[in-house]
């Protein structure tokens, strides 16, 4: 018998309408999973535009620089205008009621302080804006999950737009900072120049202060001497004032005595006049006596006789002697009396006449003495104040000396500080100049681009494969499910082992192969139907379309062998049940829906030996292609599935060998399905 002889197994479907219909159904049954499911979930993201979602704007707005804005209204309008989700404007009550009864899958609310929050960057309490979401799990888990995804996208979009506006203001601030730093750099340069000049001035100040300290010490010494001198002057002035008072009093007494003396002097002058008068009478008498003698002398001289002349000379001697004696005109007594008379009259004039020089001098002296006493009294008071002032001056000069010493210390510290300030201001000027160059300055276009970039700092850029549609992503999983389901359902109408071949003594391997070939023929038709629907009806556009077709056929052959081996090993009744259980276990652990790392430990372990794990990987490689030459999952999947195929055929062969002896359970099974 030929190794690939299929006998009458498939010919059973060639007669009658129902067998033919059963064959067609068996062939197309995998399309429930391989075609219907991918089609149903082919592109749900695009369909989100018809997903009704309520948008509630409760924002009351905010005042920004005298302008009222309502950011919530702007956001609501943009959401409604977008075609990503079917956003519908609603009130808070309408949204709550609509989410509760299923009119809306979920709702978004922009709270009352939304505008205040988004504009709070310049306030004392900057805080992020909140968007309230309302879900209802009764509207479906997937809807809730999609709603959460949509909310995150909305928040990201709003955040980027608001971040762009805030960043734009920030960049305007950078322009202001750059300009301010430039001005500060100019100012610091002027400061540095001024500090340099101040440093030079501080050196001069230190030198001048040193000179001031020396001079202030000398001034203090002079002030001490001045204080001592003014004290002595004050004492002297007080004595002079006392003397002036005494002088004034004495002059007053002198004036009184002078008046009395004037009266006495007048009396004396009168008495002297009497005496002179009396003396004059005596003189006249004496002159009368001398007259004859004078005449005689003159006559004798007129004679010219020597003897007469000698006698005249003798007469002249007698005349001279008489004149000089007594009260004669040439006598001393007459002269003394004349002087006495003149002096008595002069004394009487000076003492008694108010117009005399003496009396006027005495009056002036009295007046001057009074003024002197008054002036010296005032001078004494002034000298007292001067003493106090000089003492104050001394105290001040002492403080001045102390101050100049402190000033010297301060000037030295100022000079040292100005040295540091000069160095620091120079460095500050350089740093500010460098900083003004480093701080970016944006023109309008550059600021617009920069604010857009900073508002959304990170954008995704796919360097690898583009993301596929949802249905394409699920197709490997559903195709694997379809192939395993096709193999499971197949042996509900096919026999896993041909009893006649076993009874005829055919080799167990030939029995296994001949029983497997009808299954792989139907499985190939199933795989072709699934491939056609995916590639041409749904438009999967596999990277390797023929490879996908070959992979579907190969996986179908493997899964047919697996389901055949299970049915052959434990019988069709238990085998069909085990196949369904195994299919369920493989599906949840295959990684076709969720990564195995997110699942329980047992499923993560079973994932490594799950045949559907490798069929999913194989279909993915054919549908979307490998990402790099280092991706070894294609080879791994082929090798593992090949090993599973060999293992399944081995089990079927051993089961055929075992069934050469028919047991009682085989003749009369406890349960028929």
Automatic annotation (TrEMBL):
Keywords: Membrane, Transmembrane, Transmembrane helix. It is found in: Membrane. InterPro entries: ABC2_TM, Phage_infect_YhgE_C, Phage_infect_YhgE_N, T7SS_ABC-Transporter, xxxLxxG_rpt. Its main location: membrane. The chain crosses the membrane at residues 21-42, 470-494, 515-534, 546-570, 577-595, 638-657. GO terms for cellular component: membrane. GO terms for molecular function: ABC-type transporter activity. Residues 24-168, 448-652 form the ABC-2 type transporter transmembrane domain. It is a multi-pass membrane protein. It comes from the Bacteria. PANTHER family: PHAGE INFECTION PROTEIN, TRANSPORT PERMEASE YVFS-RELATED. This is YhgE/Pip domain-containing protein.
